[in-house]
UniProtKB/TrEMBL annotation:
Top-level taxonomy: Bacteria, Pseudomonadati, Pseudomonadota, Betaproteobacteria, Burkholderiales
Source organism: Massilia soli
InterPro entries (alphabetical): 6-hairpin_glycosidase_sf, 6hp_glycosidase-like_sf, Ig-like_fold, Ig_E-set, MGH1-like_GH
Keyword Signal part of the UniProt annotation: yes
Secretion signal, residue range per the UniProt entry: 1-21
Keywords attached to this entry: Signal
Protein name per UniProt: Esterase
Annotated Mannosylglycerate hydrolase MGH1-like glycoside hydrolase domain residues: 255-551
Pfam families xref list: MGH1-like_GH
Superkingdom, taxonomy of origin: Bacteria
Length: 967
């Protein structure tokens, strides 16, 4: 889904009489959609007479889909300007250019036939037909099993789901389990699962068959995700790539930086350090051969660095959470044997240092002390950002997010440690200082005292305020990394909202948006919340996390990608609002969900964590978990855990169950019968070991938890935020500013807060006209909506600034470039320099007159249509310099020119991120030159779209320059 030349397949179509091996299309076609992770699982078979067919068993949902080729060099939709809800037994003419996904609404699981008729090459036709359900023989997976247990899980609508577990031979060293559920599963398949405890992984023996089975299920799914080759339709022509790696899930057969890194940190690195290392190494890349580094690019000559493989606007540096790689790398380094650790540590240091140095150049805001970039993993713009952001990704690029900044902090602390280990004390001191300053900036700029939590993100340039938006991953990581002190951790844990089924990944929810990041729980995020709760001693939050993780794996027969947060459903089927159905994408055995479950058991229940040269024991067993999960058991055991080539059995001796609340202190620890400390050195271990942890007194700890609830089918103001308002007019008469605040469709009981230059200047005003008598030239305004009753707030409006500034179009005589000016067209209604930015291209503006000294912001007016706004590696990343009349550089830095939307007519132009500069009155020269983007990396040399197989792509269409005076 990443190609720009979507006309290509239409050009290849020929008549049926000239069909190739793939039929008249000349290449394979696939039905690709949310039901198969947009992958290649549903190939269309050529049936003759110009017709391709694919029969697909589809579960309930409102499924987005397209017809696409293997490498996405072609994708077909019904209407390139709008999504179409497809009716069965209806013919649709398809367009062979890119466009939004079409949708098929499915109420009950059934097989469907997708037929594409290419008899007319310019107008393929699509028809979807529902087929009869095949007869399926009833199977009892528990028949003949030795031992069975039944769990009942309450549902959001007052009912319950029943899950049954059984085991063939409870005394077997490697048990085989059956698990069945009454819940309708997200994906087609039997209502049961059969799995065995995998060789080489630890097993749980707790006296609770269901608990032991679910741990075995997670290990089984870890082994399913352990592959010898990976593939993605966007790379290597869709062909497999050899890699003894972890794939991302049942529907995701590739390795993604953030998914892998969080999964490794949560549990996979300890259990399979070699495969974790291989996977992490796959996410490193040098520059391509022949790439000439711009002089401003930092780091080693080969450029080895972490890959930012997904994100908005063309990837890095709109998205900068590639640094989350450090979470996984740190755990892998703790887990690898010394001989394997040494070369990986050296490679990790090099890649991390190169990444850190270039992120510092491209994505660090000196004024705030924070790194810019999209929220980590919340990379689906309209799910967690303002609706207007899709038309202004530069504002996303210049915003600062909590989760991503915590990732930068982890990268800095790990790299400082590795530098010290390798004798580079100067670099170690530098990165320690950067980490210390970043920690301070996060606590200064993003902590909201009135909320008792960190803001998830600040607004972008021309605003910059920390918004009243919250996410569980960012809050939890701040606690886990130690950025949040004890008081802040206690506050976060008690104030972040939890629904009946657990904590949502964002709060409040976004109105009018389906379930995915919005309105969802993600198990890996819940697992970080559990880690944070253990650190903060909050038993109530820990109990909520334990329940979420165990329930999700039990009723779904798998560790799912995500679940709707109020109902706990893998799919909330809303027939009244089919566009809001979700999660819109969901996969079984999602890697970070698997890592989350394994880590929950190994680290939180049995308390095993690795340090650089030791094992630390700190089980966090609450009274509720002890009472409800382990019943009358006097002890629970984790057997055959392999650590640095040694086998370790961990036995936790339990106090009698209690009806009270809290968590249990550790009374004593023994190693092979000898008293030991909670931290045991690795060199104390023998070939086979037994560690016994005896729990003691019940400590009350923290109990505070914020519970919220609402109808999952209604957009209640109790759990949703308002829609962001609009500044419909801004007028400045030199003495005052008048803002017209549009309500944005919000209901009665909504008030509005006005920000000037990122500072709150008016609270709880009504929609309509608001006046600012203290306005100054160059001030910028933004408005947020707030529900009076719940206090939930919206994203900020798009900012509006006083003063038009200085505009210099490319047709101005002061503009100098080696490219000729292209005339305006129906699609782009202004003259421009087309595809500017290849090696050797020049762009400068001479004799730019600044009449008065002050702060200024310089932006490039541009368009970047190299790929869609959610795809690709070709975001524009350039170096902008301002020189005074004497030729001295007075300001310089990276500006970003992300992908932008393309319309058939009158495509709106956009502006780059700004370069800020204090300028004296006088004449200046503006020069634009190259930096680099992810297409310069060797790992992307087989990418199917812009910046891939045909070489790096860092080009944009330039329309002019804008200079705005700031307040």
């Amino acid at each position: 889904m990443t190609a720009t030349s979507h006309w290509l397949l239409a050009a290849l179509l020929v008549s049926g009489s000239a069909a190739s091996a793939q039929g008249p299309a000349g290449k394979d076609l696939f039905i690709r959609g949310a039901f198969n992770g947009w992958g290649l699982d549903n190939a269309m078979v050529y049936k003759g007479k110009g017709v391709y067919e694919a029969d697909i068993l589809i579960s309930p949902g409102n499924h987005a889909f397209k017809v696409g080729s293997k490498d996405w060099s072609a994708e077909w939709v019904i209407d390139p300007n709008a999504s179409i809800k497809v009716a069965t037994d209806t013919d649709y003419r398809m367009d062979t250019s890119a466009g939004p996904e079409d949708y098929l609404f499915v109420k009950t699981t059934a097989p469907y036939k997708f037929s594409v008729d290419v008899t007319d090459p310019k107008a393929p036709r699509l028809r979807v037909t529902r087929l009869p359900n095949p007869a399926v023989a009833a199977i009892d997976p528990h028949k003949g099993h030795q031992q069975q247990v039944v769990q009942a899980w309450p549902t959001f609508d007052g009912k319950q789901e029943t899950v049954r577990f059984s085991v063939q031979d409870a005394a077997a060293a490697q048990r085989t389990y059956a698990q069945s559920t009454t819940m309708q599963l997200r994906d087609p398949g039997p209502q049961y699962a059969l799995y065995s405890e995998p060789e080489g992984l630890p097993v749980a023996r707790t006296g609770n068959l269901a608990f032991d089975a679910l741990f075995a299920l997670a290990g089984f799914e870890m082994k399913q995700n352990s592959v010898s080759e990976i593939k993605d339709g966007n790379y290597n022509g869709g062909a497999a790539i050899a890699c003894a790696c972890f794939e991302t899930g049942e529907k995701w057969h590739y390795v993604w930086t953030r998914d892998l890194s969080y999964a490794a940190d949560l549990g996979l690195a300890m259990l399979d350090p070699a495969r974790t290392r291989n996977s992490l190494d796959f996410k490193l890349s040098p520059f391509r051969k022949g790439v000439v580094k711009a002089p401003q690019v930092a780091g080693s000559q080969d450029g080895l660095q972490i890959i930012q493989d997904t994100g908005s606007g063309g990837s890095w540096p709109v998205s900068t959470d590639r640094v989350t790689w450090a979470f996984g790398a740190e755990e892998a380094l703790k887990s690898l044997p010394a001989a394997e650790r040494k070369p990986f540590a050296a490679r990790a240091l090099k890649a991390l240092a190169n990444t850190i140095e270039n992120d510092r150049i491209a994505a660090f805001d000196k004024e705030s002390g924070l790194y810019t970039g999209e929220q980590s993993f919340l990379d689906w713009r309209d799910q967690s950002y303002a609706a207007w952001i899709v038309n202004d990704l530069s504002s996303m690029a210049s915003s600062k997010s909590l989760s991503t900044n915590v990732g930068h902090y982890k990268a800095l602390t790990l790299t400082a440690s590795l530098a010290a280990e390798h004798g580079d004390d100067a670099r170690a001191r530098k990165y320690k200082a950067w980490a210390r300053d970043l920690k301070k900036a996060i606590n200064t700029r993003l902590w909201l005292p009135g909320e008792g939590m960190y803001s998830s993100l600040s607004a972008g340039h021309f605003d910059g305020a920390a918004m009243h938006k919250f996410d569980w991953l960012g809050q939890s990581l701040a606690i886990v990394t130690g950025i949040a002190d004890e008081a802040k951790a206690r506050s976060i844990l008690s104030r972040y909202p939890h629904g009946p089924m657990g904590a949502p990944v964002i709060y409040p929810q976004q109105p009018g948006i389906p379930v995915y990041h919005n309105r969802a729980m993600w198990p890996f995020v819940t697992a970080y919340g559990l880690k944070a709760a253990a650190i903060g001693g909050n038993a109530s939050v820990a109990d909520a996390a334990y329940d979420t993780l165990m329930r999700g794996a039990a009723v779904n027969l798998s560790n799912m990608e995500n679940l709707e947060w109020l109902s706990g459903q893998p799919l909330l089927l809303d027939e009244a609002n089919p566009s809001l159905i979700g999660p819109v994408i969901n996969s079984r055995r999602q890697l970070w969900s698997v890592g989350a479950y394994l880590g929950m058991v190994v680290e939180n229940v049995f308390g095993v964590t690795l340090e650089a040269d030791s094992i630390r024991l700190r089980p966090f067993i609450t009274a509720k978990l002890r009472r409800e999960a382990f019943g009358t058991a006097e002890a629970i055991t984790l057997r055959r855990l392999r650590l640095h080539g040694k086998q370790v059995d961990v036995r936790v001796e339990l106090p009698p169950a209690s009806s009270a609340t809290g968590y249990y202190d550790i009374d004593k620890v023994t190693l092979n019968g000898v008293p030991a400390q909670q931290q045991i050195r690795l060199d104390q271990l023998k070939a086979n070991n037994t560690i016994t942890v005896t729990l003691g007194a019940l400590r009350a700890g923290q109990q505070a938890i914020r519970r919220v609830s609402a109808d999952p089918y209604a957009e209640s103001p109790d759990v949703f935020g308002p829609r962001e308002p609009v500044i419909t007019r801004l007028a400045h008469d030199g003495a005052a500013v008048a803002l017209d605040i549009g309500a944005g469709g919000n209901p009665a009981g909504t008030v509005y807060n006005v920000y000037r230059d990122g500072k709150l200047v008016a609270a709880r005003v009504a929609a309509g006209t608001w006046r600012d008598a203290r306005a100054m030239a160059g001030s910028c305004y933004a408005v947020e909506a707030q529900f009076e009753k719940s206090g939930n707030r919206s994203h900020h409006s798009a900012p509006r600034c006083t003063g038009a500034g200085l505009q210099v179009p490319v047709t101005d005589a002061r503009v100098k470039s080696n490219l000729g000016i292209q005339p305006s067209s129906v699609r782009f209604a202004a003259p421009h320099l087309k595809d500017w930015g290849k090696p050797g291209d020049r762009f400068a503006v001479d004799a730019v007159r600044i009449d008065s000294a002050g702060q200024y912001r310089v932006q490039i007016q541009y368009h970047n249509g190299a790929n869609q706004i959610n795809l690709g590696i070709s975001g524009g990343v350039k170096w902008l310099m301002l020189k005074n009349a004497a030729g001295r550089v007075v300001a310089q830095g990276v500006v970003q020119l992300p992908h932008a939307r393309v319309e058939k007519e009158n495509t709106p132009l956009v502006y780059s991120t700004p370069l800020q500069a204090h300028l004296a009155a006088g004449s200046y020269r503006i020069e634009l030159s190259d930096f680099y983007n992810m297409s310069y990396l060797d790992s992307n040399s087989t990418f199917s779209a812009a910046g891939g197989t045909h070489g790096p792509w860092n080009r944009v269409d330039i329309y002019g320059v804008r200079i705005l005076k700031a307040n």
